[in-house]
Amino acid sequence: MDYDKDFEDGFEYTSLGALHFKHHPGTKEKIIFLHGIGADVKVWSKLVQYLPSDLDIFLIDLLGHGESDAPHIEYTVSSQFQALREFIALQNNGDSYIFGHSYGGWIAAYYASQPCSSKGIILEDSAGSKEFFEQLSSSGKSKEYNEKLFNNVMIMNSNKDYVIRSILDFDISEDQLTTELLSDIKTKTLVLWGANDTVIDKSYGQNIAKAITSSELKVIDGAGHDPHYTNPKEVSDAIMQFMKL
Q1: Model-level pTM greater than 0.70?
Q2: In a domain, 3, yes or no
Q3: Among 37, 132, 199, 202, which one has the highest count of C-beta atoms within 10 angstroms of its own C-beta?
């Protein structure tokens, strides 16, 4: 598929604001893609080249990102979940797979832990692990980490500083991916991780996969934090195998 030619733009209006999306209609499985913090739908431009054209694909700009609305609210994982849940209901996409990268993976996992419908989730180098935040806090480098991440993200895509600050500075303890929350995920799950991820070490992926009883773990050799971009063929193959297409 061609990102520029085979996808149409659209907007869906949730109670928190309009979500921009790109849609490629297909006759087989539905799959929704959620990007990471500060990114937008363009991050999937390489991956979609390797996906079969009969898939029904939605690429979503998360609230506060890309062409989606950016209201002055607290950008919690819970608020992103609420917008996603409404989007899926409005599009009648409860039978979709959900693929989330990093921050998007956190949202996808949170969504799957709630009484919401999906056929399965794919968590790629997912953020949100309680163990990750505990280790960061014990190192005394939380503020330094957030500031570095903020500066890196603000270089991308003309991001709005109040959105990124809200995501990074809000008390996220209630939304963290605890062992208890992950154990509530009953839908089948694929945990994808770059073997050389220096942002979120693969050990956190192993912990997430262990906590989700219906999951399998696939580590992609040679990939860092963004396998969908650096290793799109391997990620596409993993998606197809997971969906058994």
Answers
A1: yes
A2: no
A3: 37
Q: What is the tally of structural domains in the chain?
A: 1
Burial class (CB in 10 A: 0-12, 13-18, 19+), 80: buried
Centroid of chain to Cα 90? 20
Long-range contacts of 8-11 (CB under 8 A, 24+ apart): 9/67
Distance of CA 98 to the CA centre of its chain: 8
Residues facing 220 on adjacent strands: 194
Domain containing residue 174:
8-243
If residue 180 lies in a helix (H) or strand (E), which one and from where to where? helix 179-183
Residue reference for tokens 């991050």: 43
- Decide if 31 contacts 97 (C-beta within 8 A): yes
Q: How far apart are CA 161 and CA 4, in angstroms?
A: 28
Per residue in 111-166, pLDDT (tens digit) is 999 999 999 999 999 999 999 999 988 998 888 989 999 999 998 888 999 999 99
- Return d(Cα 244, Cα 179) in angstroms, integer: 28
Q: How many CA atoms lie within 13 A of 19 on its CB side?
A: 28
